[in-house]
Every structure is written in C-alpha cells, then in structure tokens.
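seq as requested:
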Amino acid sequence: VERSRGLGDVYKRQVLGGLGSLTGALVAGLIIGVIESFSAYYFSPSLSLVVLYVLFIGVLILRPKGIMGVS
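struct tokens:
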C-alpha cells in the first residue's frame, strides 16, 4: 500500500459507490481492491492504475450517481 495515494483512493471509492451511500462505498472499495489486484497480477502493476481510471470513467458515464447512488 502506497501512502502517497491517500485521498485520491478515498475519493474514487466514495464517488464510485455513490455519494451518501455507505454500502456503496464499501462495495466500491471491494470492487476496486479486487480489480486492482487482478490487473496488477495479469498485467503490470503500473497498468493497474490505468485500469482503475478506465473503470472510474466508465462507471461515471454509465451511472453518474455511482454504483448505489441515492436518487
């Protein structure tokens, strides 16, 4: 775990899960952790961040309120 990533990770998890949704933040944290681990294993660890940003942008395009966003 890199200490320098800090608030960027927290922000990604909260936005992906949906602002105001604690359950969404927990689900997004699990999804991000699994995807980051698999992408670092199957690709290069430096590409795992690229995969996360593609996921982040994709979710925001498809569901602007997040995975479990409150409407």
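The mean pLDDT is 79.
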